[in-house]
Design a protein that fits this description.
Helix content: 40-55%
Number of domains: 2
Strand content: 15-25%
Radius of gyration: 34 Å
CATH class of the largest domain: Alpha Beta
CATH superfamily of the largest domain: Bira Bifunctional Protein, Domain 2
Largest sheet: 8 strands, mixed
Order of helices and strands: HHHHHHEEHEHEEHEEEEHEHH
CATH architecture of the largest domain: 2-Layer Sandwich
Distance between the termini: 81 Å
């Protein structure tokens, strides 16, 4: 049974506490004490379940009426406190209407040069019919080295070059991928030829100086088909360099080299002219190494379930950070990762100026 005088006392006490609340937190404390999960009015409502029908008809409306009164009082007090807070804020804060209107975020924000260059790469190669492939940054030794024809004991597997995780109970270790080539393996395992993809992404090596950072960005290209050959690759790379550096023509030279995952392997130099602190492509008598490439090694094809007697292909790779530095005149790679807003304001790109071949990549 609920005594009427007890309800009146409870109502009077709660309403007094609501009126005395000086701010939102104090008012919320009153609400929880009255209407919360373990509140006083909530406890009364729970007693209705143990009453007889006659008792419920007698006390139910009274208790529910109390709940409604308290809820209305809390809502009214909350509006009063909010209005008082607004008045106080308007009295304390002033607005200088003579100040210039601030620029919109779309005007002041800037796209990082790495993001811009990746968008440019995608635009160029999409125009040639290439798709986009991605893979995890954390890789297995098998995908990062073994399937790519790195023999046991190869220097690239050493801990001074590669970031390894702690060994698993079976002795195997995951690692941060040292190149984006594991995605080539994943692509060949998942897709049937013909394959034409580019693979931009983050890579990791234990190295740090003016032109090297422990985390950097690479882009690789992969073509697998029955008739793919070096002539096709040469044309693709020439067209890429012309489009990316926005020049009418380029001269390139291909030098023999060695990579475990390609045979033959080549390094590519591009014609340039060095003038003071600038490098201009498509002119001059100087040369600059820009990328490595070659025909996919037969062992790599076999490791990915492809018959090298039926399929062959070529691949190339280059540093996104490096070609960004060359194109946009940045001298120190470390600035890419320092999150300096001043540097980004100078070298960054307007967010709505998406690179297109028709409109100019960097215009």
């Amino acid at each position: 049974m609920v005594a009427a005088d007890n309800l009146e006392t409870l109502e009077r006490d709660i309403l007094q506490r609501i009126a005395a609340a000086q701010d939102e937190p104090a008012l919320e404390a009153v609400r929880v004490a009255a209407l919360g999960k373990n509140g006083a009015i909530t406890a009364l409502l729970k007693t209705l379940g143990g009453m007889t029908p006659a008792e419920r008809r007698l006390h139910g409306p009274t208790i529910n009426n109390l709940k409604d009164k308290v809820s209305a009082a809390i809502a009214a007090r909350r509006e009063t406190l909010a209005a008082a807070a607004l008045d106080a804020r308007l009295k304390n804060e002033t607005v200088d209407v003579t100040l210039p209107v601030p620029d919109a975020p779309t005007e002041t924000g800037r796209v990082h040069p790495i993001t811009q260059v990746i968008d440019e790469l995608i635009a160029i190669f999409a125009d040639m019919g290439f798709g986009l492939a991605e893979g995890p940054d954390i890789e297995t030794d098998d995908f990062n080295f073994t399937k790519l024809n790195f023999p046991e004991g190869h220097p690239a597997r050493d801990m001074h070059d590669t970031f390894y995780f702690h060994p698993k109970p079976d002795g195997s270790r995951l690692l941060l991928r040292t190149h984006t080539s594991p995605v080539q393996v994943r692509t060949m395992l998942a897709q049937k030829p013909p394959i034409r993809v580019i693979i931009p992404g983050r890579t990791y090596r234990s190295d740090s100086d003016q032109t090297h950072t422990p985390m950097f960005h690479q882009v690789e290209g992969l073509v697998i088909d029955k008739g793919a050959h070096l002539g096709h690759m040469k044309w693709i790379l020439e067209e890429f360099c012309k489009a990316f550096f926005e020049v009418g023509s380029v001269k390139m030279r291909f030098r023999p080299s060695f990579f475990p995952f390609t045979e033959p392997s080549l390094e590519v130099d591009i014609q340039c002219r060095r003038e003071k602190n600038e490098i201009r492509f498509g002119e001059g008598e100087d040369w600059l190494e820009i990328l490595g490439c070659g025909m996919v090694h037969p062992n790599v094809l076999r490791n990915c379930g492809l018959d090298p007697e039926e399929f062959q292909g070529f691949a190339w790779g280059m540093g996104i950070d490096r070609i960004a530095m060359l194109k946009y005149g940045m001298s120190d790679l470390r600035a890419f990762f320092e999150a300096d807003v001043r540097w980004l304001s100078h070298y960054g790109f307007r967010p709505l100026d998406f690179p297109t071949l028709a409109g100019g990549l960097s215009s």
